[in-house]
Each structure stands twice: as C-alpha cells, then as structure tokens.
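pasting for ref
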Amino acid sequence: MESKKVLFISQEVSPYLPDTSMSVLGRDIPQGIHGKEFEVRTFTPKYGCINERRNQLHEVIRLSGMNLIIDDTDHPLIIKVATLLPSRMQVYFIDNDDYFQPMPEKGLETDLLAADNDERIMFFTMGVAETVKKLRWQPAVIHCSGWVSALAPLYLRRKYGDDPTFRDSKIVYALQPEKFEGTLDPRFVEKLLMNDFTEEEIAALGKEPVDFATLNRIAIDYADAVIQVTPDVDPALVEYARQSGKPFLPYKDDDSRVESYTDFYRTLLGEEED
C-alpha cells in the first residue's frame, strides 16, 4: 500500500533550535509518524539563529527564486533543506532576508522583531504552499502546529482551495500554549485583503488589531480537525474547538501521543481499522 503523505507546518523544530517543549515535539511527533504507513515532510521558518553549517542546510535552487507579494512589495522566497536523523525525514526551511535575518542574538525573529510578525507568518504560509506545489507532493493530511502556522488553514482553503495539491487534504490545527504578546500590526486585515481574500472570508478577525486568541480561532474555523497538544493550552480555545463540532483530539501523554495522532489521521481519512 502506498504511504499516505503528511505535511507538518511547524513553528519550531529541534535540533535546529534549542530544546523547548514545542521544538522537541516538532521533531519527535513527525519522526514518530514517519515510516511505512506515512511519509512525512516538515516545513519550518529558517530563523536567523539557526546555524546552517552545523545543521547541514543547503539551498534548493530549483525551488527558490519565486517572489511573494505582501503589502504590494516583492519578497524573494529562498528554500533550504536538511535531513533529520535517524529517520532521514526531510525538513524544509522557508527563508527570506526581510523576515529571517542573521542576528547575533540567540533568539527568534518572532520575539525580537515582533512588529513584522503579521507579514512574517503570511510569507511563511505562502512559501510553504508554493513550495509544496512545486514539489508536486500531494499531502493527505496537513498538520499545522503553533501560531506561526495559524494562517495555513485559511490560505489552503481559500487562496489555494482549488489547487489539486491541497484540494483533498485534511487540515489539522494543533493548539499549542506558546503565545505572542499584544496584537499583530493594525493593518494586518488590510494586507490580507490585498492578498486576494474577501471581507467575508476573514470577517472572524474583526475590526480590532488581531491578538493570539483571534488568530487561533480563525485557524480552527478553517481547519478540518483540531488537536490539543499539551495540557496547558488556553482553556477558552479548547472549548472553542470543542464547540466547533469538528473532530477534536484532547491532550495525550508522551507515551501514547504518536499512536493517538496516527489513529486520528486514519479516522479523518476514513481508514479506521476494525
């Protein structure tokens, strides 16, 4: 039987970033799932603090070179790749000098340069979609983890909804506890409208600057299913996910997490085992 393809869109992945709860799960869950039944590829931002030489990243020239337009400005898309051992799973990095800059500080642009976070996550989301299209790699499941991936359900269902690469994919949004402070740029909704979304499609973002909870709610709205990754996820978001009526997988401990996720994927794909 041909392996089902699973695309992970992950906010952080170890060992490319220091070990945190999020980055370790960003490594362990895809590696645990990758195997005979599922073929997994992970996409993550190429934060400036990632050491390319130590982690053996190299640019994929055939995938790079496209310009993505955000707020009426062109931003070149650069794609890099590494192989994660021992699973030999491929990890792709979305890079751009405007949003991911080499910095002496050992931190993430999402924290150090937070004013650009709205454009940074727009660029990251489009970069993932355009690269997967170029790869001609059609995922059965798209697993979005962390708020940096929160625009993916919206983009994949609306901007890329008619593309055969994503048309039949099941989108899972994984709720994580890590938050950003304050709100995104006040022009965020305006920039999305310039990116060919309609007011109706993004009405849930409201008229006020978008905060963490609002961003997560629109991810839930456009996802097909929701997973609670850790026990300390915002209870209001967990309840919102439950009330949505969509398939919901509550928190599972480390020992059963991979098995629970794979069973959840099978159910979404209509492949429950007897």
